[in-house]
Amino acid sequence: MSNLVTRTTELLEVLPQSDQQFAYEFVKKLVLAWDPDFTKVTEEEKKRIESAEKSGFVDSSEIDWDNIGVD
Q1: Residue pLDDT, tens place only, 26-64
Q2: Measured between alpha carbons, how far is residue 23 from residues 7, 38, 51 in Å?
Q3: Cβ(49)–Cβ(41) below 8 Å
Q4: Is 38 left (phi over 0), alpha (psi -120 to 50) or beta?
Q5: What is the CA radius of gyration of the chain?
Q6: Contact 8, 1 (CB under 8 A)
Q7: Which of the residues 5, 20, 35, 57 could staple to 40 if both were Cys, CB 3.0 to 4.6 A apart?
Q8: By three-state DSSP, how is residue 55 classified?
Q9: pTM surpassing 0.85?
Q10: DSSP letter at 65?
């Protein structure tokens, strides 16, 4: 979690519950406006995806699932 998100969370905790709910709904609307179908990735997610792609992982379509563990 970024420092900004941590600081924002700390501020939200000071608010009364009803205002916390309002802030949550506002942030939710911002996120949905930015990425309505949840297909964008954050910078952190992008780094993790790139790392996984460079790690030599095997695509699941290349695995013979019927013969796992068979020598």
Answers
A1: 999 999 999 988 889 888 999 998 998 888 877 788 888
A2: 14, 20, 34
A3: yes
A4: left
A5: 20
A6: no
A7: 35
A8: coil
A9: no
A10: G
